[in-house]
Amino acid sequence: MAYRVGLAFLGLLGVIFPTNLPAGSIPASRLPQIRSAAALVQDLNSGELLIAKRADLAVPIASITKLMTAMAILDARLNMSETLTIEESDKDRVRNSHSHLFIGTRLTRGEALLVALMASENRAANALGRTFPGGVAALVKAMNAKARALKLTETKFADPTGLSDSNVSSARDIARLAIEASNYPDICKFTTTPEFTLKSGRKQMQFVNTNSLVRSSRWQIALSKTGYIGEGGRGLVMKTRLAQRPILIVLLNSVGKNTRIGDANRIRQWIEGPAASKKK
Asked: Is pLDDT larger for residue 13 or for residue 118?
C-alpha cells in the first residue's frame, strides 16, 4: 500500500517511471530528486524511459536549438571549408549576449559550426544562417521541416541561435532530436570538444565547452548541448554511458546555475549506485 501511495505522490509531481524497467535498473523507490522543471532519462539499448517528469511540457529551449541548426546545415551539404566573416548583423540585438568573435573575424563554416555547438557562440550560429542558401529564413524553414519529419509535435523554431523565446520544445521531443543528432559524427565530435583555439589573422580566441561535464573523467559523453535564456531557465541534453549502457538525459527549465549539473550527477549516482562515487 505504501508503495502505491508513493507512486501516486510522484505522479502529482509530474514524475513517472515504467513498471517494466529493463534488467539491472535501479528500484523505483530510489528515484533521484530532479529539480529541473522537466526531465527525461532514457535507456537507449531498450528504449525504456527511466524517468519522465513533465516530458511533454513545451518550454523555451535556448541554445539547445543549435542541435537542429547543425543538422539543417549538414543536411544541406554545404562546403565546410568555405570562409565566413562575422558581420555587424551577426550581433545579438535581442539579449546583447557576449561573444568572443569580433566583427571581421574570418573562420571556416566548419569552425563556425564547432564554436556554435561547443561554446554556444550566437554570432557563429547567426553567420551560419546568414550564409545558408536563402538566408536565415530559409534555414529556419529547413529546421521546422526537419522537426515535422521527426514528428516533434511540441517543437517550433524561430531563429538558428535560440535567443528567441519562440524556440520551444519538450523533453520528449528533445530526446528524439538528440537521438537523430547523434547520427551526425560532426555534431557528436563538436558538442563534446572540451576547448578550442581559433586563429583569425594575428588574433587567437579561446573557446570552452559550455557543459563542464565533458571535462570530467567521471563522464563518458557522446553528445552534449546546453542552453540558457531567462524565459526558459537552463537546459542540458546529453547522450552518455552509465553502468555500461547508453543513456540519454534531458533536463529543461532548471532554475539556478548548478541545478542541471546537480540533477545530472544525481541521475548518474542513481543509475550506477556505489560505483559512481568511486570514479575520479
From this structure: 118
